[in-house]
Amino acid sequence: MQMIERPWGVSAYGAASVKALPDLVRVRFQIVRTEQTPSAAFEAASAAIRSVRGVLRDKGVPDAAVDGSRLDLTTAWTHRDGVRVFLGYRCQAGFAAESSHLDDVESLLIDLVAVGARDIEGVDFDVAAKRDLRADARRKAVAAARQ
């Protein structure tokens, strides 16, 4: 082990935390449609996406606050009595939408599910001004280290 024989300088440690109430909600969900042909699956998913976008706009969520994935197509299978059974073609698209309307989250979720977003992956409440809060915590930590 190496030791410093003649140390110089001073080390100080300070810690601080800040708290804030959430001011935005982030909803993550998927639209999944299974149909017998790829074109029918794409059509069904696209129709559901249009409906979901309409609900988001009606709820005051701007298009810039919505991240969506491209449509993905896979085959869907199940097993019945040990036999693999073809269900169809599954088309899906994932979304994340942010809203500042915290009092309307329940209504938003109900409406999204009603128009076809049946796979809700998560609802997270967050703070938009994280950068400012972190800067405030750093300032307070430095002040605490100086004491």
From TrEMBL:
Record Gene3D superfamilies: Protein of unknown function (DUF541), domain 2
Pfam name, any one: SIMPL
Biological processes per GO annotation: DNA damage response
Protein origin, superkingdom: Bacteria
Name of protein: Uncharacterized protein YggE
Species of provenance: Allocatelliglobosispora scoriae
